[in-house]
């Protein structure tokens, strides 16, 4: 506690604003527990950049923590590009303080002699990723906490390729940040170096989104879409992109169309949560819409609902959406003729079905750690290969490489193209997904996500993962465990034969058990939220589409059994 107190007292110097000093002194005098939460560590970069609760302290998002990040990044840029005119681009989302924090970040860059392109208003994360290369920048920043609760904000860093920073670069930048004190941050803006941007970049991004997400789908005049931005940034892009692609029957949920960091109509602005799309689903039923699309605050994740076999709207999970998107893209490439250097991408906790689909087209499927920064890195690491598309189970997908992060804007258009064409052919998005299951195997997944907040929560998550490793699972629903993949040690071991394989991915706190029947159970801490996540995937053969309901029920029962057997119930 003495170290925490010492850190907090350093925030009482005259460098910090009077109201900040006053709040710190109040915590020192009156609230030791809250003081500990705010100062026991520095905020860290996770799978989606740096996210945290806004407020005073080293473990909070504020002017000083982001200023220090930006100063460290400025120092790093100068070392990496000593003889160049440095340029960065900054975007921000709908969250409280995002606009003022973005301005602060711009001012610190400018104070260090770096040219800044700052979006004049909120914009999507995919547009920020696109704009890095479009404007020829050395780096990009977006102020967002994605789908986290309203009290959060965040800071994501992109590099010259438009992708998020990855090792060893992220570690080198963190070393630069850690090498300086708060008092080293230069907040004295050079406003001549800050240029506001908007329509020109918007136009280029819309054009690229339509080009990459359109495939000449038929039936657009007869295809009804209900769209909700859930109070986020996608309202600035998705309606316009759909319009330019020829979709006229788009109903926007007006109650959720105004950007609002309180997210007043939902408990969580996360399209992974069914409740977040409830308003759109109700409207869709009223007007007989074919599809519902909802996106998270920074518009990198999308959730969709489509008509099932009974004609009712059914929410799909991220694995289902990415499977059909990948198959559709592969079909389009197959029509033109594969060149042999194409690949698709997925992550270690996403459905194995993506790999099965890719194998069906004799196309390589590359697998990465969780987080789209790793998929972006693949594109950079394999310049002679052609990236078709890729995604992860957490409702993210990327079409082509013009954006180097998950992109709900272009993915929304792609989903509409698939569904509109299917309807025109007398089929549907849902029926096409079932056809996939018949062709490649019926894979079904379930995510168990447990929230554990604060210092005690972090310890609890650490202990849960430790026990999951030290008390290894022997079998799952009667099927013996064959492989144990430990990404902390980079070793996959066949517990039946003793065979070991090296996992050629960076070390990560992920453990995966795979049984003889192909069931997989993975565990990892979230890189962006105070959560521990368990991913269950199982599969069965689907002989014909008519057997879908029966096999679906069997897989549901199996997943319920796994949850009970492993004591993962919430």
Topology of this structure?
Blueprint: H1 2-9, H2 18-30, H3 32-39, E1 45-46, E2 49-53, H4 63-80, E3 87-92, H5 98-111, E4 115-119, H6 125-134, E5 139-143, E6 152-159, H7 169-178, E7 194-197, H8 199-213, E8 225-228, H9 238-244, E9 250-252, H10 278-287, E10 291-295, E11 302-307, E12 313-315, H11 318-336, E13 342-347, H12 353-360, E14 364-368, H13 372-381, E15 386-392, E16 396-399, H14 408-424, H15 429-440, E17 442-451, H16 454-470, E18 475-476, E19 479-486, E20 491-494, E21 500-502, E22 511-515, E23 520-525, E24 531-540, H17 548-565
Parallel strand pairs: 3-4, 3-5, 4-7, 8-9, 8-10, 13-14, 13-15
Antiparallel strand pairs: 1-2, 2-6, 5-6, 10-11, 11-12, 15-16, 17-24, 18-19, 19-20, 19-22, 20-21, 22-23, 23-24
Provide the gyration radius in Å: 24 Å
Q: According to CATH, what is the class of the largest domain?
A: Alpha Beta
Q: Please, what is the CATH homologous superfamily of the largest domain?
A: Alpha-D-Glucose-1,6-Bisphosphate, subunit A, domain 3
Going by helix content, strand content and strand pairing, the class is alpha/beta
How much of the sequence lies in strands comes to: 15-25%
CATH-defined fold name of the largest domain: Alpha-D-Glucose-1,6-Bisphosphate, Chain A, domain 3
The main sheet comes to: 8 strands, antiparallel
Number of helices, counting only DSSP H or I runs of 4 residues or more = 17
Contiguous uncertain segments of 5+ residues: none
Specify the overall morphology. Answer: globular
Mean pLDDT across residues? 95
């Amino acid at each position: 506690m003495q170290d925490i107190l010492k850190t907090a007292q350093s925030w009482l110097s005259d460098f910090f604003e009077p109201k900040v000093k006053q709040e710190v002194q109040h915590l020192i005098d009156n609230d030791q527990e809250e003081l500990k939460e705010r100062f026991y560590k520095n905020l860290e970069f996770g799978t989606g950049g740096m996210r945290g609760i806004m407020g005073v302290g080293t473990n909070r998002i504020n002017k000083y923590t982001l200023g220090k990040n930006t100063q460290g990044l400025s120092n790093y840029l100068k070392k990496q590009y000593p003889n160049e005119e440095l340029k960065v681009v900054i975007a921000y989302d709908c969250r409280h303080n995002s606009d003022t924090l973005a301005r602060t970040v711009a001012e610190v860059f400018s104070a260090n002699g770096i040219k800044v392109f700052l979006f004049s208003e909120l914009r999507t994360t995919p547009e920020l990723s696109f704009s890095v290369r479009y404007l020829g920048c050395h780096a990009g920043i977006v102020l967002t906490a994605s789908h986290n609760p309203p009290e959060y904000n965040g800071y994501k860093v992109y590099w010259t390729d438009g992708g998020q920073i990855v090792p060893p670069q992220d570690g080198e930048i963190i070393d630069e940040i850690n090498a300086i004190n708060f008092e080293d941050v230069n907040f004295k803006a050079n406003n001549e170096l800050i240029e506001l941007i908007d329509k020109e970049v918007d136009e280029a991004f819309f054009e690229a989104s339509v080009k990459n997400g359109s495939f000449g789908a038929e039936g657009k005049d007869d295809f009804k879409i209900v769209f909700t931005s859930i109070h986020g940034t996608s309202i600035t892009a998705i309606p316009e992109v759909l319009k330019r692609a020829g979709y006229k029957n788009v109903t926007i949920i007006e109650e959720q169309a105004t950007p609002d960091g309180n997210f007043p109509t939902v408990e969580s602005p996360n399209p992974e949560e069914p409740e977040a799309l409830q308003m759109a689903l109700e409207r869709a039923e009223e007007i007989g819409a074919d599809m519902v699309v909802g996106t998270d605050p920074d518009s990198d994740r999308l959730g969709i609902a489509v008509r099932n076999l009974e004609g009712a709207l059914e929410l799909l999970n991220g694995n289902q959406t990415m499977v059909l998107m990948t198959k559709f893209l592969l079909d389009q490439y197959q029509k033109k003729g594969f060149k042999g250097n194409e690949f698709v991408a997925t992550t270690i906790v996403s459905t194995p079905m993506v790999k099965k689909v890719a194998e069906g087209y004799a196309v390589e499927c590359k697998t990465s750690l969780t987080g789209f920064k790793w998929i972006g890195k693949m594109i950079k690491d394999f310049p002679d290969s052609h990236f078709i598309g890729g995604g992860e189970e957490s409702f993210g997908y990327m079409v082509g490489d013009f954006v180097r992060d998950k992109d709900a804007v272009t993915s929304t258009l792609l989903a509409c193209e698939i569904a509109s064409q299917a309807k025109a052919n007398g089929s549907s998005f849902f029926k096409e997904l079932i056809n996939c299951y018949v062709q490649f195997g019926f894979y079904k997944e379930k995510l168990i996500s447990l929230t554990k907040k604060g210092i005690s929560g972090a310890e609890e998550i650490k202990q849960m993962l430790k026990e999951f490793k030290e008390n290894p699972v022997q079998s799952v629903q009667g099927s013996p465990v064959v492989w144990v993949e430990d990404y902390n040690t980079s070793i996959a071991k066949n517990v039946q034969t003793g065979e070991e394989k090296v996992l050629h991915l960076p070390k990560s706190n992920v453990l995966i058990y795979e049984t003889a029947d192909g069931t997989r159970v993975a565990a990892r801490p979230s890189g962006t939220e105070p959560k521990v996540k368990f991913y269950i995937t199982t599969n069965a053969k689907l002989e014909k589409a008519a057997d879908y309901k029966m096999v679906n029920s069997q897989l549901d029962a199996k997943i319920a059994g796994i949850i009970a057997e492993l004591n993962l119930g919430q």
